[in-house]
Every structure is written in C-alpha cells, then in structure tokens.
Amino acid sequence: MAGSSFGTLVRLTTFGESHGKAIGGIIEGIPAGFSLDYNQIQHDLDRRKPGQSAIVTQRKESDKVQFLSGIFDGKTTGTPIGFTIENEDQKSADYTELQKAFRPSHADFTYQQKYGIRDYRGGGRSSARETACRVVAGAIAKQILAQKNIRIDAFVYQVGSLKWTGEWKSELKTISEANNVRVPSEELAVEMENLIREIRKEGDTIGGGIRCVITGVPTGLGEPVFDKLHTELGKAMLSINAVKGFDFGSGFDSISMKGSEHNDLFTTDGTTKTNFSGGIQGGISNGMPIDFRVAFKPVATLIQEQDTINEDFEAVKLMGKGRHDPCVVPRAVPIVEAMAALVILDYYLMQKAYKK
Ligand SMILES: Cc1cc2nc3c(=O)[nH]c(=O)nc-3n(C[C@H](O)[C@H](O)[C@H](O)COP(=O)(O)O)c2cc1C
C-alpha cells in the first residue's frame, strides 16, 4: 500500500517529493460539465506557497499548476484530472547532514525504519510540499460546492498562547485574509506576527490553531456508523503534516459541560439555537454550520543545535539548516479548506439515503 490516495467517490492521489522534479496528482470522480476558474485555483496555491511573507519559509516557488487531462474547453469532462507543479527552488546541499542523522520529531527516523531508504532532501515525501496538490484538488471541489451555496472558511485562531475568541462571521474573512497570519483581528495579527518573528530569531518554532466553518451544508450528509462525517473530516485533517489534534463543535471543552448546557435546542424551522454539535449529529450533517478546529505542532526543524542519533544509533549533534516555517498555520489555512472541501464534496455526491 503506497498510502497516497484519499476519498471515496472524489478521490485524490498525489505523487512527488520536496526536491524532486515535480509534484502532482490525479483527481477522480469530479462530475462532468463544471466550468473551472483557474485564477481561483492559483489564488489558493498562492495562499499556501512558500515565500509569501516574512513569517514563512523563504523557499521561492511560483507553484504554477499545469493540467494534463480531464478538462476540455475550461470544463471538467468527468475523466481523471491529472496535473503537475514543478519544483523550481531546490537547495539539496542544505540537507546533506540529514543523510545519516535524524531530526528529532520529524519523519526521518520513521521513514528509514519503514522503507530502509529515504529521500532526505527537504524531507522528501514527508515534506508539506505535497500539500500543494491537495490545494489544487480542494480548489476545484470548493468551486463546485460554491455553486451549491456551500462555503468553506478557515482562519488562524491561535498562535502559541495568543488566542482569538470572537464570534465568527463570514465577513471577517476580509480581515483574516488581509494579514500575514490569517487571523480575523488586526490587533492580534500584529501581536502574533511579532511573536513569530521573535521565535524565528531564536531559530525556534511555535504551534498554532486553525478553525474552519462550513456553511450551506444540507442536512443528511455523512454515513451513520463507521464513515461518519466528522470521522472523515478528522481523517482529512489529521492527514495534514504537523497536525496533532482535531475537534469539532464543543470538542474537548464538552468534558466540563453539563447536558443541560450542552444540548442544542431546536427552533421550529429545524435549526438549533446553539451549535455545540458543530453541525454534525450521529455522524450526519444537521444543516447548522460545520465548525471544527485543528491543532498544529511547532515544527521539528530548528535552526539550533540539537542532540539526536544517526543511522547506527550513535549520539550525534545536529544543526538545523535550510529554509523552514517558524509557524505553519498561516500557510496551512488553504490546506485545511482544501481537505474539508474534498470531504464535503465526496459526501455531497453520496447524498441523502432517500429522495423527498
Ligand atoms: C504548511 C506546512 C509547512 C511546513 N513546513 C515545515 C518546515 O519548514 N520544516 C519542518 O520541519 N516541518 C514543516 N512542516 C511539518 C512537517 O511536514 C511534518 O512535521 C513532518 O512531515 C512530520 O510529520 P508529523 O509532524 O505530522 O509527524 C510543515 C507542515 C505544514 C502543514
């Protein structure tokens, strides 16, 4: 099992390594006849790409996608959509020390144990460069969902201990997308950016949180037992590099609540007065906004000397090199949206189990 595919009806397979010739993917199951807006796809790639601001990795990639199949006269044909994105700015020499030594908390050790060989340049297949392919597929899914009035908004709500606790409204997206951090508060954007800059100066990294709100989802999406809607969303989110946690609705906060506080009481139009369920009950969408959070760890590559081991399990020192993200959440926002879009489109196409 190569483990490179995701989804049921809408299926994404990706290939490529950080410092190989190109990355790319094949998207299957996209219905025929949808007109695609290429600028929108590039816009999402630009939101993810390295070098976009002073607080992300300074690798310079234009991330231009080239479609090879599945689109004719600007419309999807229902056949597999193949695409590639070239790798343009490789600095393989930055990674020579990683041929033998393992970065603590990266994937170097586990890949070596599993395969006995690894492309150590920039993390190879374990690099988050692969997520550009998810953004391409997700941007297509998002466009199809937008035509069904389903909207997906992700934003940063936490960096280190700095936290945004406001009430989300889609109009806040103009604020979150106008600052380098992608947080819906101009004041917090400055504080968070300063914190990330300080952390970078120390050669260190810091964790962060992303919240995602999906509106316009009809009732009835999701399978009742194993393939619950939140199960698949959780899998999608936990498959993103550096993700350490997923919760939806009240999530882990529900532990300290009473049922009388937590129950979402119905109104007579079938909506609920509160949304502690996060838009999903019994694994099936209830028509309220789907609302979840994703926790990202402080990434592993530090520009500091660390104790580690080499392939012979000898203790060695390793000094991190290369261009790295001091905090991944600003770049991960479009990745979260992309993975959410793929799941929702997949379940949308499976739809309700009865026709009204
Ligand atoms: C957008 C994004 C950018 C990332 N950039 C880096 C980076 O510059 N350096 C690094 O060590 N890890 C980075 N990571 C995380 C690694 O890809 C990830 O930690 C590694 O593959 C090991 O997987 P795990 O952390 O999920 O266990 C990034 C992750 C994301 C989502």
UniProtKB/TrEMBL annotation:
Pfam family membership, one: Chorismate_synt
Record flagged with keyword Ion transport: no
Cellular component aspect of the GO annotation: cytosol
Residues annotated to bind FMN: R125, S126, S127, N241, A242, G282, K297, P298, V299, A300, T301, R323
EC class: lyase
CDD domains with a match to the protein in the record: Chorismate_synthase
Entry GO MF terms: chorismate synthase activity; FMN binding
Lyase found in the keyword field: yes
UniProt-annotated binding residues for NADP(+): R48
Gene3D superfamilies the record matches: Chorismate synthase AroC
Reported cofactor(s): FMNH2
GO biological process, one term: chorismate biosynthetic process
Annotated pathway: Metabolic intermediate biosynthesis; chorismate biosynthesis; chorismate from D-erythrose 4-phosphate and phosphoenolpyruvate: step 7/7
Subunit structure: Homotetramer.
NCBIfam families, A to Z: aroC, PRK05382.1
Protein family membership: Belongs to the chorismate synthase family.
Role this protein plays: This reaction introduces a second double bond into the aromatic ring system.
Name of the protein in its database record: Chorismate synthase
